[in-house]
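Working notes for the structural subgroup meeting. M.R. asked for a predicted model of this chain before we commit to crystallization trials. I am recording the input and output together here so anyone reviewing the notebook later can reproduce the run.

Input as submitted:
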Amino acid sequence: MDKLGQYRTYIQQLLKQYGEYRPSTEEFEVEMITDTQHDHYQLVTVGWRNHRRIYGCFLHIDIKNGKIWIQHNGTEEHVAHELVALGVPKEDIVLGFHSPSRRKFTEFAVN
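Returned structure, recorded in token form:
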């Protein structure tokens, strides 16, 4: 499998894993959104809590120019480190939720 195909597989594997976590008392669903044509991947919560609407993205990952961009990580986990453990080099992971000026201080790619 080529690098891009492997990255897609890793991302979808992580999304599926995180999508299974949810409190049993809540009335919401976790939806996994995968767009392999444009390489956009998200986990979104949809539902209700105490008569209030719940909707929001808690994990958003893209693949741009051969690199994995973590655009938003609302989990308590270090998704970038999990990708490294799967075999993704740190220079192929961008922490997109950090400003470009802060990225140079991380151990991951700047762009």
